[in-house]
Amino acid sequence: MKNPFIDFHSESYQIKERPAHRIAEKKQDVFNRIIKGYLDLVENEIKDLAWIVEHGRVVKVYGAAVEGLQELQYDQAYIDEFCAELDGSNSIPYMIPGPAGLYASALVNCSQESHISLRLGDYQRPFHFLGYGLPEGKTLTLHGDGGDFIGAGLNGGRLVVQGAAGNWCGAGMMRGEILVDRHTGRNTGEWMQGGEIRVDGQIDGIGKMLFGGCIFKQGRLVASPGG
């Protein structure tokens, strides 16, 4: 009897790479580049045991962060993951609040999304400088209390803090709007050149040098250069 399977020959079968796998690998590569960019930034900045806030240094760190992120395509999820990694992962050996917040701000400002929300209440460590240089057309909402220098150098964007802000809120802001549900710390609006800061709660102290803009507390104007 003839073998009915004699005309069938075994052939090698090559498993095709699934598109989902390629997408996952691409996303992981982007996130790895985001983390590497931050670590490289910190390595270049840390000369001492403490990071000192100086205007020139802040501008330099932020500019370097933006330069490294401009070619990357990412969204809100990457920013959330970056903040979570900084807060609790062992893969990043250290977190320095100043550069960390500036890098997170660069991530927000360079993203393609016009509205970004960060849940600060999920993190144990403070993030300073969030909202730094926020440009026109961008809205950043912070759910929870922010650190110092929140909204510093704001450049036309809208920053909503559903919580409290620390010292130097809105320092050096040029234009735009900062809304704070609770209170702000000392030197609020120091060196601001334009825009508005509106605080629904108390303000521990207003900056002594205001070159423009207005500060409102509980709906009442409390500071302006001509006031």
Can you offer a commentary on this structure?
By secondary structure, the protein is of the alpha/beta class. It has one domain. The chain contains 4 helices and 7 strands, in the order H-H-H-H-E-E-E-E-E-E-E. It has helices spanning 19-45, 55-69, 76-88, 97-110, and strands at 115-119, 139-143, 155-162, 175-180, 193-199, 212-217, 220-223. The chain has a 7-stranded mixed sheet with strand order 1-2-3-4-5-6-7. A hairpin with a 2-residue loop joins strand 6 and strand 7.
* SS-based class: alpha/beta
Please count the beta strands (DSSP E, at least 2 residues each): 7
Gyration radius (Cα, Å) is: 23 Å
The percent range for strand residues is 15-25%
Q: What order do the strands of the largest sheet run in, or round the barrel if closed?
A: 1-2-3-4-5-6-7
Outline type: elongated
- Give the terminus-to-terminus CA distance: 107 Å
Q: Mean pLDDT score, rounded? A: 85
Q: Indicate how many domains the architecture comprises.
A: 1
Instruction: Profile the largest sheet.
Output: 7 strands, mixed
Helical content band: 25-40%
Task: Write the H/E string, N to C.
Answer: HHHHEEEEEEE
- Low-confidence parts: 3-21
The count of helical stretches stands at 4
